[in-house]
Amino acid sequence: MAGDSARSSRSFAIILIVHLAVLVLWQVAVDAFHVPKFILPSPLATVQTLGTTGYAWGANTLVTAIEILGGFALGAFVGVALAVIFSWAPLLSLVLLPLFVTLNMIPKVALGPLFIVWFSYGIVPNILIAFSICFFPILLTTARGLREVEPDLLDLVKSLRGSRWTLFRKIQLPGSLPYVFSGMKVGAILAVAGAIVGEFIASERGLGYLMIQVQSSLDTPAMVMAVVLLTLLGVALYGLVLALERMFVVGDARQT
């Protein structure tokens, strides 16, 4: 236990040092080569844009965070639920899964204008775009995890006359958790992209909307700051998934 904690602390320290080194190198390079601010602002110039009150950084970041989290949560719920249903109803999986594959091939940018026509402007269409991008990897990986049951364990449950619910609760679900969280990690990344796609197409609030607004005035520091905040939102969501994985997967492995 202590060894795992020490390794985690050491890994975190290395990651933090690497990121700080990149920021320092970025600042030194911009200052040394006198790069114009509108081409590549320094980290200090980027952070200074947070003091610009007209950009409403807090409100726009909150809107984008709601879109990302809402799309991801909806995608995780629907993806896992459908995977469970498909594992219990193979015929339904045979009928619907190819349809979901086909629908997933539709460019999500093309769906944006349709979502706006159907649901108008606002947070809801952006949540739906984020959902449409992130739910499919969760569905596929969870369905694969539920299918990969060890034959010996399956025969054991059947010999003990265990019910389908017992098989699911005792074997399929615990065995599929690594697959579920693998899909959720990918979904967390895609949810950020989906929310920004929606804000780029048509939105009245959010970091993507703000980037479109400042682009016309070549306020590159503000655009970079928006990208940084988007990255932080994505890292926070990814870290949440990692924490849940550590709690449910690694924790269960230690108990066994």
TrEMBL record:
Report the main location listed first in the record: membrane
The source's superkingdom equals Bacteria
* UniProt keyword list: Cell membrane, Membrane, Transmembrane, Transmembrane helix, Transport
Membrane spanning segments where? 12-35, 55-78, 85-106, 118-140, 179-202, 222-244
Instruction: Give residue ranges for domain ABC transmembrane type-1.
Output: 61-242
Q: Which PROSITE patterns match?
A: ABC_TM1 (PS50928)
Q: Where found, per UniProt?
A: Cell membrane
Recorded topology in the membrane: Multi-pass membrane protein
Enumerate the CDD domains for this protein. Answer: TM_PBP2
Biological process according to GO: transmembrane transport
SUPFAM superfamilies linked: MetI-like
Family under the similarity heading: Belongs to the binding-protein-dependent transport system permease family.
**The protein's name:** ABC transporter permease
Protein's organism: Bradyrhizobium forestalis
